[in-house]
Design a protein that fits this description.
129 residues, mainly beta, Lipocalin, eight-stranded antiparallel sheet
Length: 129
């Protein structure tokens, strides 16, 4: 009987401590409007590669990049409490943004991300237009 109670206690503790991060694409209020990249570091400053783009984080995880030439590239985004994921597929320029990023700051006007790999120093900063 004592063994059974101990087993239940361990299972309950494990269930409570194994909290899963929830994905939230419904929180588009704070990401409403258009955004631009004001800093991108990948072994060197590559911010200028994205100067022609404005980004819209739409509901349902749709990420739109509008180029100054009138082109629109569609990708996806999602987030958890600590991570932010971007995927533009194989687009020659925007695929550099693909990946799972760690959120370092997220407000209504700033989204700062860094590579989730500690051995990398990549950084991606969006600012609201």
């Amino acid at each position: 009987m004592f063994l059974r109670i101990s087993l239940y206690a361990v299972l309950l503790f494990t269930a409570v401590s194994c909290k899963r991060e929830s994905v939230s694409n419904n929180n588009t209020e704070a990401l409403s409007g258009t955004w631009r990249i004001n800093y991108y570091w990948d072994q060197k400053d590559e911010t200028s590669n994205f100067a022609a783009y404005n980004f819209m984080f739409n509901s349902g995880g749709v990420l739109m990049a509008h180029g100054s030439s009138g082109s629109t590239i569609t990708g996806t985004w999602s987030e958890t409490t600590t991570k932010f994921t971007i995927n533009f597929g194989s687009d020659p320029i925007l695929s550099d943004l693909n990946g799972e990023w760690m959120k370092t700051e997220r407000t209504g006007t700033v989204l700062k991300l860094k590579d989730d790999n500690p051995s990398q120093d990549d950084q991606l900063h969006f600012i609201k237009n």
